[in-house]
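Input set for joint prediction.
Command: fold jointly, output tokens.
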Amino acid sequence: MKQAIELVCPAGAMPALRAAVDHGADAVYVGLRGPTNARNFPGLNFDAHTLPAAIDYAHRRGTRLFVALNTYPSPEQWTACTAVIDAAAACAADALIVADMGLMGYACERHPDLPLHLSVQGSATSYEALNFYHEHFGIRRAVLPRVLSLAQVRHVIEQARPEIEVFGFGSLCVMVEGRCTLSSWATGQSPNSCGVCSPAHAVRWEEGADGRRARLNGVLIDRFGAADKAGYPVVCKGRYEVNGQTIYALEEPTSLSTLDILPELLNTGVRALKVEGRQRSPAYVAQVTRVLRAALDALHADPQRFAVRPEWSRELGRVAEGQTHTLGALHRSWQ
Amino acid sequence: MKLSLAPIPYLWPRDDVLAFYRAVADWPVDVVYLGETVCPKRRVLQGRDWLAIADRLADAGKEVVLSTLTLVEAESELISLRRMADNGRCMVEANDGSALALLAGKNGFVIGAHINVYNAHSLAVLARMGARRWVVPGELPAATLRQILAERPRGLETEVLVAGRVPLAFSARCFTARAHDRGKDECGIVCERYPDGLRLRTQEAQDFLTLNGVQIQSAGAANLAGALPEMRALGIDVVRVVPLIEGTEEVTRTLRAAIDDVVDAATAERALSAVLPAPACNGYWQGEAGMAWREAEGM
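tokens >
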């Protein structure tokens, strides 16, 4: 019998945290306010004062709580980041999700009992890379970038010492996480440096005779006719002209859903399934957590006879960005 | 201050690569980085070919560094990496965590620009593992670099990209294949048709990005010649040029002249802008959007 897959859900603030815990998350991940995590949206995130209450709520119901600290701090952000590590350790958070090697070193030295998870922003895509972080910083778990095929995930798990968490549902990053500066190229701010992708202050919507135009710091990312659903202007999801054709040159707006391949993920030894979306509403968190809890429970009860129930797909489809499902890179054949 | 040449980011025909490096032997560059860093399916040159080029460049007095693949996924890629790490002749530039794993504790390596080092603490960690030089991540502004360098580990050299297209993102997906409506696994090595990358424009015809297989670059080139005096004052040891299909020699000669104070920085900046692909950019260095451009002061 393979080890059960843990369900790890996002919480941008206390209502979403309650939603995740109450609907069956095994663990919840949160960020602390400021430029120290990759979901640095206004109105979100906990701080050192609200973190203890969050941990208390989770722990009383048997849910673990992870603190995400997944940006790469510049020297002036350093102290804010180490304060987050100190706060996470002081509140007995169940893990710190971290990307920066300097911060890993700090956590190892000051708080050797605080378990460390390698953030997806750490861009570790091979077992050699994962074992490097394990050997030097005691990384216990790593979140894989959304770029590997299922066969590659299996190969990584066979050789990697940290346990493996994969993204199970949410917006699909087409780039290798931690290796994309398209946002700062256009706006000056990126996930690595500021914890934001396509910051809201750089977005401008223009209404014209030919429809709506979405700009990012002046750059036309896309234009939409009356019938089009206008998506948030992220560089990788725009429509551009390449070789004389106007196409989604990088990525179509779609969501990742691994519902269909849960038995394969269990079989490969994936230890945890992560839901993306600390910026999403408590209702989204509740819905996705509820569906994935039901799916994982069915999977664990009888892996051989697991079948996706139509209502699960329907419910997830309703909250998915671009309203489509894809397995992302996971369905790619070997190499 | 030394002048370096980054690996060729594009897929060029084998004979063109060999001719390019025969010419480089006579160019005024001090350090040459070699290898395929973008896509493992590009195999026009094998490991032994690169080592033969390395030997010829070393004979011409160049320091040669072997650069590793940026996105490592398959076992075959790890096998190549191990061979590279144990080559015994050249220093290696690590471009991902797999390479760090194989190079840590070895006799000196270069931290590539795709290893995320944004503070002196991370730099110190890697210096303790044996790093001798680090290539500054593209988006770091001069002001941040100044703070990091104030605490830089002793003996660790710093390298900054000053001319050429800026690498911006890597993916498991091949964008060149996508533009041809092909999947990555059936790409047919279509990127060989684009030795200068494939231009991506906005729907308003603004040159915005360059598609280069699984890599995305800027459309125009970085031009930091105007910042050379500032870089010298900061203690930057190496300035880097990214090869282009045309004009690379002229770029290196111009920068050499500026480093040697034969021409002033502003003149060098203008000369580079005439050669490099437009639109010029230096925004990252200024702490702005990377695509932004500000002319050197005093012009």
